[in-house]
């Protein structure tokens, strides 16, 4: 396995804050860049390969630690230098070498890959390891759950602080900044699991809004999706509330509908449940609630056939969480996502098992780019109370997570 | 010219906050990733090439803007799609094409480079542009200076806030977090020019210390080197002060010596001055002051010959600043740094000109990795009052910038 490398801002000497690659962190906990790990399968012996830092490093970057420091800190059986890798393999002559290579199903990006001079002289299995690590990461240990509870608590407290300080007239980024400060200063959480999404009013209709540079106006719905991370473990929390603290009737309709989805799904979430079914349950609940409220009309089964729920909740119900906020393992072993609206944006297509961690985050968004085509088509337009819908243009969205 | 691309955390869909490449920002001000720029030298006509975003983008990332939006926002003559680049060059048939390629003298890294399908059919000049842009960037316009004064003011106010809140018992990262929050929430400065260096006590002796995870103890010297950036323009400020607000006699010796260096250099800094000379002036002043204080002994000219000043101030006196905190242009046209101690870490080897922006940041550090070899050698050991020096082990450092 190859750990993450130190990154720079373009061609400059601006060093970015190092965050370890998730699977490498999972296996080692190593916080330093530029390392490699081997595990000998027959004996379980782990060897950490660290960079051989020049003495000059001590002046600029602190003490150059001896190998014993890493041995003790990370509990590996042996520490060698990265330059020792070819000789190490020559001596061990493993057959095969398992290398982590695979495609992340959320991003479509391929993992970075360990290699060394002379690797072509060995039999290498590039298939198995990626899936196996993924399956390990999917089921959390009690220790992992403890860290995840900690990081969720830090994010949660920071959200509360943001709620307390929120006032119309503030800039979205001021609330993002406050969240970051609370997480870091109170919780020691230096990084966030994803760029903070602080959308007030119409900003809230952009699902991955991250500019956060609009003024928060009076009587706007705020949709704040922010989560920090600690020891590379992530959190993911979305809170929706009115900028001035008072829910208008218009806001109540949407908020209560989303809340009903949370409740409906929470009742059914248990080992054995099929996640895509729960996604559809959330969409159905949304349609039922918005029909009660008069925003939708017609038969709910029919709405489901026309994916009306999917169009209001263009994101999936939720996803696996862990060392990545969209954690590995949602579609294991090359499983494909459904092409249907709604499900095609769902990041997990599995039956639930004990020890999995998932978010439940239904939402209701009013996105012009989604609604306009639906209203232009009589087949789908008939489900909407268009007069009422018009009042929700520019409203943004609600999500509860 | 090629603008910066959106970056992800390893293979995941975690999008990093986008910060434009500095020279591209200099020429365009463009805030979006994935763009290219051409300037037709005969006419001065500028064309911005933007990615052709799919409609799906509107749901997740906000409105997909028409080309006219970019034309207006950035004042370019024409906006085309990135995919149009080969056809554009085919029509214009330029001879030659100037492409930005060069090595950053602070990092040793090479610039990223614009290319397109079919570029090998043109005559391309990879030499000239890099140096020319560098020379443009070295001399700041009044408008640039205005932005740089703004960003320096934001950082300065944030430093003051950190000073006010500083108390022994806090963690270094809490003060970093406060700085970041002040810059972003008050100044709209989302990024920092470099990772905050918050070193209390012995942490301060690591020049690029950035872990910031030590507890600040009573009666420690704090060395806080932090600067935010705005519109990609950087700031760079170091403050040194005691954790409990009271300078001990031991601290005063070092602080006053560094302050004397600042004053000596500030008197001589003017157009025509040779920056390496000012660096040596700072080292000489340091030796004189520490001799007065009794920490050094012997003849100052002799100390200079043995680079005693360089060993206490292992960084350079200062550097050009602008769109990068270590700005481009310190050694133009392939000029080499002196190999001498002190000067070999100096990031600028030029005669000063009006419109240049530089930091003046002398310092005095007690780094074991530097001092131990000096004391082991009688040639250099004789300049130190070893008994007094021993009391400064673990002291950290002082820098004033
Ligand atoms: Mn989520
Ligand atoms: Mn500096």
Automatic annotation (TrEMBL), chains A, B:
Main enzyme class: hydrolase
Alphabetical GO biological process terms: proteolysis
EC code(s) of this entry: 3.4.13.9
Gene3D superfamilies (alphabetical): Creatinase/methionine aminopeptidase superfamily, Creatinase/prolidase N-terminal domain
Family annotation (SMART domains): AMP_N
Keyword annotations: Dipeptidase, Hydrolase, Manganese, Metal-binding, Metalloprotease, Protease
Keyword Chaperone: no
Required co-factors: Mn(2+)
Catalytic activities: Xaa-L-Pro dipeptide + H2O = an L-alpha-amino acid + L-proline
GO MF annotation list: manganese ion binding; metalloaminopeptidase activity; proline dipeptidase activity
Keyword Kinase assigned: no
All copies of domain Aminopeptidase P N-terminal, residue ranges: 1-108
Source taxon at top rank: Eukaryota
Subunit structure: Homodimer.
UniProt similarity note: Belongs to the peptidase M24B family. Eukaryotic-type prolidase subfamily.
Protein name as it appears in the record: Xaa-Pro dipeptidase
Provenance organism: Sphaeroforma arctica JP610
Lineage of the organism: Eukaryota, Ichthyosporea, Ichthyophonida, Sphaeroforma
